[in-house]
Amino acid sequence: MDPTQEKYLQDEKCFLIDEFDIVLGSASKEQCHLVQNDGNVKLHRAFSVFLFNSKEELLLQKRSPYKVTYPNRYSNTCCSHPLANIEEEDEEFNALGVKRAAIRKLHHELGIQPHEISLDDAIYVARIHYKDPGDGKYGEHEIAYIIIIKKDVQLSLNFNEVSEVKYVARDKIDEFLRETNAELTPWMELLIKNGNLGYWWDNLERIGDLANDDKIIRFNIKSN
């Protein structure tokens, strides 16, 4: 395992939550992604950023080969977690803690300077709940906040996190995925197949009006 990624697994503390996104405590990133003997993975809070430029092209990333979960797969712009051991990332009003975490990770993974994106630029539109067994050792079980940003930014890739990026137009994404034979992260695949990404993409000009912070979109998961 890459030593940098291994350190993140041990040092980062993610928020453990229930199915209604209520915080129950925290655990290491590794504990939150280990597939247990019964096949379960601890439910934790996450986010997924979809960043579009002024031409409404979506910035896709290919995850680095060093990543513990889903290496070398294509995904949306940035995916990670608000952390319990970082100040103010627990603030829940208007998803401010998650937005702060998103800005932090955009800088860490893609070199986007924090002054380039404000909290107001980060539009929280929905939450999704999904589960995936990954490689059988490390998997996912998250309620992820969908954050949409429309901004032109400067990039400087952290190759320990991201191997390549590409801006893709709305009418070219199917062709891009087909021609590259791209293997997607499970959440990205779900959002494409179920039409969520297309709906948000088609409505970028009024994306703030589409925000639904009450409903959690559940993919193949039943709530109690």
From TrEMBL:
Keyword Cell cycle assigned to the entry: answer is: no
Q: Cross-referenced PROSITE patterns, in alphabetical order?
A: NUDIX
Which residue ranges run through the membrane? none
Q: Name one GO cellular component term.
A: cytoplasm
Entry-linked InterPro entries: IsopentenylPP_isomerase_typ1 (IPR011876), NUDIX_hydrolase-like_dom_sf (IPR015797), NUDIX_hydrolase_dom (IPR000086)
Keywords, ordered alphabetically = Cholesterol biosynthesis, Cholesterol metabolism, Isomerase, Isoprene biosynthesis, Lipid biosynthesis, Lipid metabolism, Magnesium, Metal-binding, Steroid biosynthesis, Steroid metabolism, Sterol biosynthesis, Sterol metabolism
Please describe what this protein does: Catalyzes the 1,3-allylic rearrangement of the homoallylic substrate isopentenyl (IPP) to its highly electrophilic allylic isomer, dimethylallyl diphosphate (DMAPP).
Protein name (Swiss-Prot/TrEMBL): isopentenyl-diphosphate Delta-isomerase
Q: Which organism is it from?
A: Rhynchophorus ferrugineus
